[in-house]
Design goal:
Blueprint (H helix, E strand, L loop, with lengths): L1 H14 L14 H10 L10 H21 L11 H14 L1 H33 L1 H15 L7 H8 L4 H24 L3 H9 L4 H35 L8 H10 L3 H29 L11
Pfam family, one: BPD_transp_1
Membrane topology: Multi-pass membrane protein
GO cellular component, one term: plasma membrane
């Protein structure tokens, strides 16, 4: 009898409200609580706009760099401080020399990207949609992808000479493969359940390609485009330092002869800013084309 009484009283003493003891684990309202918690706006550690917070890291790096140059920790012959770099940039801009070199580089990269991205996209679609295209093209693209792009420079010069064509050809060759690999993988990675749902809805092969497969491959294409944009500038740095008469790479090569580290660093900063601008362009395309997709955006 005492044991039975103890068992009857124990739940009330645990709950404190005279009712039955709550079972372990999440209760009936836990799903609602979790949903409310997930929908609450995230708090940021620094109450500043997101663009300002993204610039905080580079600005801090520039400040440390300037202090190292000001106090003589790093000599100007080794690495010019930001003040000297900005001064050289202003002088080259004032004379119009920097603008001419920048336009030459932009023209080459744009031409090479147009050819490389178009070729990579078309080959990826053919190899991804058709079994025969996969058997004929994918293995060939994988072999060519393993070739070092800059190692082809002597051969490209023999083929096309030392004008604009070899530089554009190198950029096209180097940017086609990131687009191909990521787009091809995205096409083959489309969820089979979506394809079956499209067939159930009455879509034919062309309708599946247009409304299911290609839209599902857009994220992969944009990833490949991001890699292609970065790779284009890396290739152009080397291509413009060999057999070139203008361009940012040519300007840096000329500055090396005079130990002008300020101009060399200026060229590197221009390449970095161009890469940042290209990445921002791809992010804008992602927001426009993938507005239906909501992914994880990081915690507070």
């Amino acid at each position: 009898m005492p044991d039975a009484l103890a068992q009857a009283v124990a739940p009330s003493s645990l709950t404190g409200d005279g009712g039955a003891a709550r079972p372990p684990g999440p209760g009936p309202g836990s799903a609602l609580v979790d949903a409310v918690a997930l929908n609450k706006p995230r708090r940021t550690l620094i109450p500043l706009p997101r663009p300002v917070r993204r610039l905080a890291g580079p600005l801090l790096l520039v400040l440390v760099w300037q202090l190292l140059g000001t106090f003589g920790v790093v000599g100007e012959r080794v690495l010019a401080p930001p003040s000297a770099v900005f001064s050289a940039g202003w002088e080259l801009t004032r004379t119009g020399e920097l603008t001419d070199h920048l336009l030459a580089s932009l023209t080459r990269v744009a031409s090479g990207l147009a050819l490389g991205v178009s070729a990579g996209l078309v080959i990826a679609v053919v190899a991804g949609l058709f079994r025969l295209g996969d058997e004929l093209l994918d293995s060939t693209m994988q072999v060519l992808r393993a070739l070092p792009v800059l190692g082809l420079l002597p051969l490209v010069i023999i083929w096309f000479g030392v004008g604009e064509t070899p530089k554009i050809a190198l950029v096209a060759f180097g940017t086609a493969f990131p687009v191909y690999v990521n787009t091809y993988s995205a096409i083959r990675g489309v969820d089979h359940r979506l394809v079956e749902s499209g067939r159930t809805a009455g879509l034919g092969r062309l309708g599946l390609v247009r409304h299911v497969i290609l839209p599902g491959a857009v994220p992969g294409f944009l990833v490949g485009l991001r890699f292609a944009l970065t790779g284009a500038w890396l290739i152009m740095i080397i291509a413009e330092q060999l057999n070139a008469t203008n361009g940012i790479g040519y300007l840096m090569n000329q500055a090396q002869s005079w130990y002008r580290t300020d101009i060399i660093v200026l060229g590197l900063l221009i390449y970095g800013l161009l890469g940042l601008g290209a990445d921002a362009l791809v992010r804008l395309l992602e927001r426009r084309l993938l507005s239906w997709r909501h992914g994880f955006e990081g915690g507070a």
